[in-house]
Structure formats: structure tokens, C-alpha cells
Amino acid sequence: MATADAEPEAETTAEGPDAEGPDEAAATPATAEAEGASLAASGEEAEYEADLEFLRFLYKEFVFKGEELPRQLEIDDLNWEENRPIVRNLVLKTLKMLPYAATDQQELMNLSANWADDREFADTLFKQTLVDDAKFEALIGGSVQNWDVDRVALLDKIILKMALCEMQLFRGIPVKVTINEYIEISKLYSTPKSKQFVNGVLDKLAQDLAASGDIRKSGRGLLDNQ
């Protein structure tokens, strides 16, 4: 009786563990494989991020700050000094956003969010500045007190004429934005004193042209003549 009673208990006890055992045994390799793949992917991504950081370091310290490579780039590109900050920003932004699945066909980020619109803006501004050159020359001459307009640096006159054209032609761009942008251009390309000269002339002419109605600003978030 004791033996007979013990056997069913043994069978019952055996059925419990044995019933769950095969499932656990079957699940364990798959689970381990999934976890291993996840860890491997995580490790690869971590290594990828480290590689990107190393690339950013190389570009910052050797391509854009070094001596030998920038010198060679200047030989290949006469405008390198001007293009350098633009290229630097594009490269670093591209590396920052470069996806893990990127291939060797990956391109740099676009210079402009909408190049077609930007090109149309530049073309229109350039052509209209040439069309109205005589008018802008007269405006500049009338605003420069005790100073012959012919003595104004040529680059300063070009900057002033383009700014005046932008003020009058593009009604959606605030006057203050235009003035500030062309002051920055004068800092980069003209003489050390040009920024004060450009600022003074544009500020005076902007007020005069707004008062005469030749500058009118309109559009969302803009008041006329602002």
C-alpha cells in the first residue's frame, strides 16, 4: 500500500517538472539568442557612435583647424577660407545625424532647406540691383554728407545697393533684418570701419524711404515700414 501510494505521487511530481521542463529547455536557446543579438546590436551601435565621435574630432582638429591639410585645400579651392565654415557646419551636422544604417552613398546635408527658392531670391536680388544701380548710386550720394560718393569703397557701395534693393523689393523681410545682415557682410568682406559706415547710411536711408512710401513691409507678423 505504501509503495502503491508512493508511486502515483512520484508520477504526479514527475509530470509537473517534466511538463514544464521541455518548454523551458526549448525557450532558453531562443531567448539567449535574442538577448545575444540585442547585446551585439547594442555593442555595434556603441562602437558606431564612438567612430562618429572620432570622425568629428578628426574634422574639427585637422581638416578645419590644422595646417597642412587646410593649406592643400586652399590650393585646390581658392575660395576655401570663405567656404570653410559652411563646409564645416555641413559635415558636422551630417555626422551628428548620420544613421546607423548609412552606406557609402550617404550625401552631405543640403546647404539650404529650399535651394530653389533661395536661388530665385539671389537671382532676383542680383538682377534688380543692377537695373536700379543709378537710382541707388544717387540715394547713397545724397545720404553721405561732406563725402564724395566716388570716394566710398566700391565694396561698400555694392553692399549698400544690394541692401537698398532688398529693403524695397522684398516686402516680407523686416528692414532691421536686412540692415543687420548687410552689416555682417561688411564685417566679413570690407574694411574694419565699414560696418559703422554701412549701418549709418542704411539706417538713415531706411527712415527716409519709409517716410516717402518707397519701403513698405507687409506680411504675417509684419507691420508696414517695420
TrEMBL record:
It holds the Pfam family NusB. Residues 1-23 have a biased composition (Acidic residues). Residues 24-43 have a biased composition (Low complexity). Residues 1-43 are annotated as: Disordered. InterPro entries: NusB-like_sf (IPR035926), NusB_fam (IPR011605), NusB_RsmB_TIM44 (IPR006027). GO terms for cellular component: cytosol. GO terms for biological process: DNA-templated transcription termination; transcription antitermination. One of its GO terms (molecular function) is RNA binding. It comes from the Bacteria. Keywords: RNA-binding, Transcription, Transcription antitermination, Transcription regulation. Residues 88-206 form the NusB/RsmB/TIM44 domain. Belongs to the NusB family. This is Transcription antitermination factor NusB.
